[in-house]
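Example S7 (C-alpha cells).
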C-alpha cells in the first residue's frame, strides 16, 4: 500500500504490484479509484531529449499504459511536435510515407505482419513490457525486410533504481533461453 495526499494505491498481488511499480517508473500511477497520480516527468524529459537528438529523423515510441499515452501526447503538443498514434490504416500509411515525425504505438497493437519499416529506423521504449514476444514483435516492425536503413536503433528509457532494470534483465534472459532452445533444436535436426 502507498499512501498519497489524494488517496491510496494498493496492490492485491504480485502481478498488480509489478504493474504499479512499472507505472511509477514511467512517472504516474493509477490510484485505487482509477485516477492518475503524477509522480515525475523524468522519462518525458528523456523522451524529449531523444526526439531532439534524432535531428528530424522519424521516431517510433512504444508506450504501455494509457496514462503514458496521455502524458506523452500532452508533452508533444506542448512542444509543437507533430505526432500520431499508429492505430489505423491511415496513420500507418502516413508513417510509412514519412509524414509523421513521431509515431506512438502500443506493443499489443504492433503484432505480426504490421509493416512500419518504411517510416523510420528508430524505436524508443518509453514503457516496457514483460512479454518477450510483444517486445520482439514491436522491434520487428522496423527491423525487417524492406528497411532501407542499415541500422535500426532501439533505445530504452530506464528509470534508475526501479523495476525497469528487472524487466530489461528478464527480457534479456528470456531471449537468451529462447535462442539456446532454438539452437538446440537446430542441432538435433541438423539444420
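Recovered sequence:
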Amino acid at each position: 500500500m502507498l499512501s498519497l495526499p489524494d488517496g491510496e494505491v494498493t496492490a492485491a498481488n504480485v502481478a498488480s504490484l509489478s504493474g504499479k511499480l512499472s507505472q511509477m517508473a514511467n512517472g504516474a500511477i493509477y490510484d485505487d479509484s482509477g485516477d492518475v497520480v503524477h509522480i515525475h516527468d523524468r522519462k518525458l524529459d528523456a523522451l524529449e531529449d531523444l526526439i531532439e537528438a534524432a535531428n528530424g529523423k522519424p521516431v517510433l515510441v512504444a508506450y504501455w499504459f494509457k496514462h503514458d499515452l496521455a502524458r506523452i501526447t500532452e508533452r508533444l503538443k506542448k512542444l509543437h511536435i507533430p505526432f500520431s498514434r499508429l492505430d489505423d490504416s491511415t496513420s500507418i500509411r502516413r508513417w510509412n510515407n514519412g509524414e509523421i515525425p513521431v509515431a506512438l504505438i502500443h506493443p499489443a497493437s504492433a503484432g505480426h505482419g504490421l509493416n512500419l519499416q518504411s517510416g523510420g529506423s528508430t524505436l524508443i521504449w518509453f514503457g516496457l513490457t514483460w512479454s518477450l514476444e510483444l517486445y520482439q514483435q514491436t522491434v520487428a516492425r522496423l527491423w525487417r525486410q524492406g528497411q532501407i536503413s542499415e541500422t535500426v536503433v532501439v533505445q530504452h528509457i530506464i528509470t534508475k533504481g526501479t523495476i525497469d532494470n528487472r524487466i530489461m534483465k528478464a527480457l534479456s534472459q528470456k531471449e537468451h533461453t529462447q535462442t539456446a532452445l532454438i539452437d538446440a533444436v537446430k542441432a538435433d535436426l541438423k539444420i
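Notes on this example. Helices lie at 14-26, 42-53, 66-78, 89-96, 132-139, 163-189.
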